[in-house]
Design brief:
Elements (H helix, E strand, L loop, with lengths): L1 H24 L3 H5 L4 H25 L7
Helix pairs in contact: 1-3
Amino acid sequence: MRLSCNLCILILVILGICGGVFAFSGFNLLLFLCFYNTVIYRSILAIGLVSALFTVYALLVFKPFRGLK
């Protein structure tokens, strides 16, 4: 469980960096890394969506911040 949570966070950080590069420079780094293949590009974005949903699920179910009052 810990490995999958860390993997999901890593995926979201990488997608966030690629999104930041696109927002500030206009260069789509993720599409460039996918060799301009839109099927791979959309697949990676779908994996990012699943990672975000799993991260929200893990935060709601396991409540890691419960003891921080």
